[in-house]
Amino acid sequence: SFLEYFQPAQRGFAIEPFNASKTSCLYDVMCTVEGGGISGQAGAVRLGIARALEKHQGELRPPLRKGGFLTRDPRMVERKKPGQKKARKQYQWVK
Q1: Mean residue pLDDT across the chain
Q2: How far is CA 29 from CA 38, 72, 89, in A?
Q3: Pick from 30, 20, 2, 31: nearest CA to 57
Q4: Within the chain, how many helices (H) and strands (E) appear?
Q5: How many CB atoms lie within 10 A of CB 17?
Q6: pTM for the structure as a whole
Q7: How many other β-carbons are positioned within 10 Å of the β-carbon of residue 48?
Q8: What is residue 74's three-state secondary structure?
Q9: How far apart are the first and last CA of the chain?
Q10: Cα separation, 24 vs 36, whole angstroms
Q11: How far apart are CA 48 and CA 78, in angstroms?
C-alpha cells in the first residue's frame, strides 16, 4: 500500500499535485511503478497523478504547470564507455 511503501517525505512529494490543484481527497489513485529507486518511483507517481488530473480537468493545467508537475525529469544514467571501468572512471594510467 501507499503508506507502507513510501516514507513520509516521499508520500508528500507524490501527492503534491493534489495540493497544488486543491483536489485533495477528491480522487482515489491506483498505480503501478517499476524500476528505479523509491524516490524515482515517487516522482513517477507524482508525474502520473499530474497528467491524469490535467487530462480529467483541463482547467487544472495552469497551477500544475506553474508547480512544475507536468515536466519529466530528463536525467538518465550515463552509459559505460568501452576501454573504461565505468561511465567516467578510467583505468589507472601507468607510464
Answers
A1: 91
A2: 18, 20, 42
A3: 20
A4: 5, 0
A5: 25
A6: 0.81
A7: 16
A8: coil
A9: 57
A10: 27
A11: 25
